[in-house]
From TrEMBL:
The keyword Cell division does not apply. Coiled coil: none annotated. The lineage of its organism: Bacteria, Bacillati, Cyanobacteriota, Cyanophyceae, Synechococcales. Its main location: membrane. It comes from the Bacteria. Belongs to the cation transport ATPase (P-type) (TC 3.A.3) family. Type IB subfamily. This is Cation-translocating P-type ATPase. The chain holds residues 423 to 715 of 780 of the full protein.
Length: 293
């Protein structure tokens, strides 16, 4: 590879807000066969709005939100930001020993009580009791494309809250162009399958996997890499629960505004935070390699 072509490619990238961190990145990117996408903050804007609050015990909706937002203090997930901003006018509780379980939820202690805020499966695993009469409501919320978050206190469910995210306006056209180029798009998310399917359908991604932990995302990338010797897997993410997958991918791509970990781990950073800039990066990689040859 001629160093000049790479230098030119890299500086052309920088002019377009595409930061390329390494001499061989463009060459690898040019061979991309699969591009995996995280959902929250990548295909969507990650700007979550609280839409529904459902206590299942006799407490006001505001109290349920207070519990949830109090546990989320000090965490950085887009869901946490959505809950905390909705609770602006509420007095949050001094929750202690807050611990995040990546891709699952958050726990903390308040007045000797264990508070859990997270996805349904995780709360069930923690021994929270579930009544099937609640499921209809939860399913309805999910069918509206909302992410449902559950709140428990000492293994007793207090209620659930739904948040709505918005698709990035450029997502659909970006995926269409990738497919046109013969690159297979893939959606990997920690969220529920119903939401994953809705988003995948909306943007035109045929293959998706849901309820994935950060480790499961890594395993899936490895599996895709092993499919055949020519497989080259790029991963686009925001670093929240997907930094290990960004590292495992042949090319990790993050949008600026992603976590510091993501910006550091990624081989390519899209400074303009436009999802469609993955297409510009691919075009650049092709032009660069064409010059090399
Ligand atoms: P995605 O793959 O869409 O970016 P994540 O892997 O970040 O999603 O999270 C997966 C799921 O885990 C979320 O949909 C949510 O149910 C749960 N979760 C993760 N972090 C939190 C949190 N801070 N508070 C509540 N729930 C969380
Ligand atoms: Mg994420």
């Amino acid at each position: 590879a001629t160093p000049t072509a790479i230098l030119v490619g890299t500086s052309l990238g920088a002019e377009q807000g595409i930061l390329i961190k390494g001499g061989n990145i463009l060459e690898i990117l040019q061979r991309t066969t699969v591009m995996a996408f995280d959902k929250t903050g990548t295909l969507t804007q990650g700007n979550l709005q609280l839409t529904d609050t459902f206590p299942v015990i006799d407490i006001p909706a505001a109290q349920l939100l207070t519990l949830a937002a109090s546990v989320e203090q000090g965490t950085r997930h887009p869901l946490a930001q959505g809950l905390i901003s909705s609770a602006q006018d509420l007095e949050l509780l001094p929750v202690e020993n807050i611990e995040t379980e990546a891709g699952q939820g958050v726990q903390g202690w308040y007045q000797g009580d264990l508070l859990l805020v997270g996805n349904q499966q995780w709360l069930m695993e923690k021994g929270v009791m579930w009544h099937s009469q609640w499921q209809t409501e939860v399913d309805q919320l999910r069918n509206q494309g909302k992410t449902v978050i559950f709140v428990a206190r000492n293994q007793q469910l207090q209620g659930f809250l739904a948040l709505q995210d918005t698709l990035r306006p450029e997502a659909k056209a970006t995926i269409a162009q990738l497919k046109h180029w013969g690159i297979t798009p893939l959606l990997l998310t920690g969220d529920h399958p119903t939401i994953a399917e809705a988003i995948a359908m909306e943007v035109g991604i045929a293959e998706f996997q849901a309820q994935m932990t950060p480790q499961a995302k890594v395993a899936k990338i490895k599996a895709m890499q092993g499919l055949d010797p020519a497989s080259v897997v790029a991963m686009v993410g925001d670093g929240i629960n997907d930094a290990p997958a960004l590292a495992q991918a042949n090319v990790g791509i993050s949008l600026s505004g992603a976590t510091a970990v993501a910006m550091e781990t990624a081989d390519v950073v899209l400074m303009r935070s436009q999802l469609s800039d993955v297409l510009k990066a691919l075009t650049l990689s092709r032009a660069t390699v064409a010059k090399i040859k």
